[in-house]
Specification:
By secondary structure, the protein is of the alpha/beta class. The protein is built from 8 helices and 12 strands. It starts with a strand and ends with a strand.
Length: 229
């Protein structure tokens, strides 16, 4: 079955361009031009990936992203943010509210499709791996789920992959560039600063259920490591 991509964009030319090329690549595609209608469509049929414009009538793209990440059912949907803004601060804000990738207009269609495929690959659980147990923390790639003390921690696909990569190598120190290669892959466009954003989000989400929230440790001047035994 082909992956289902929902495009939330109010520029008709961009919508036509994306829809035609994604369908040509075998994707199932639906489009919505209003932020309020987008949430209704997402809840009607959960997409495998969301292409989301930042500036929309109704509910804006950032708020849609926040709403998704607060929802148990939609929290893991990969989100590719699409916007005319190119400043690094806008990119960081998009990542902080839960976007998995970020492209600015005008964009290369080939590059966008490559990123869509990369996000879909990263959102697929690593079925051959065993669950990782550390104190009250369980990282389960079979269910693509994280629990702390029995409580489910809702993570995006990239948050899960980053945590899984760290937890799979307890005590090993990774630089930001190494984590980008492992979690985002070589077809990434994000910067090393993005790793800091994702680590902060992981700590906040895990910390909501854990008294001792030092699973991910900072190694100053180098990067991060998962607490070793």
């Amino acid at each position: 079955m082909s992956a289902y991509v929902l495009i939330v964009e109010d520029d008709r030319d961009v919508v036509s361009l994306l829809k035609y090329n994604l369908q040509s690549e075998g994707f199932s595609v639906a489009t919505v031009s209003d932020g309020s209608l987008a949430m209704a469509e997402i809840r009607r049929r959960r997409p495998d990936l969301l292409i989301l414009d930042l500036m929309l009538p109704g509910i804006g793209g950032l708020e849609i992203c926040r709403m998704l990440r607060r929802s148990e059912r939609e929290a893991s949907i990969p989100v590719l943010m699409l916007t005319a803004r190119s400043e690094e601060s806008d990119r960081v804000v998009g990542l902080e509210v839960g976007a998995d990738d970020y492209m600015t207009k005008p964009f290369s269609v080939r590059e966008l499709i490559a990123r869509v495929r990369a996000l879909l690959r990263r959102s697929t659980p690593e079925r051959s791996s065993q669950a990782i147990h550390y104190d009250d923390l369980v990282v389960d790639p079979q269910e693509h789920r994280v629990r702390v003390g029995g409580n489910v921690v809702e993570l995006t696909a990239l948050e899960f992959r980053l945590l899984f990569e760290l937890a799979s190598h307890p005590g090993m120190v990774f630089s930001r560039d190494q984590l980008l290669d492992r979690a985002w892959g070589h077809d990434r466009s994000v910067t090393p600063r993005s790793v800091d954003v994702y680590v902060r989000r992981l700590r906040e989400k895990i910390g909501a259920f854990a008294e001792d929230n030092d699973y991910i440790q900072t190694v100053h001047g180098v990067g991060y490591r998962f607490k070793g035994r």
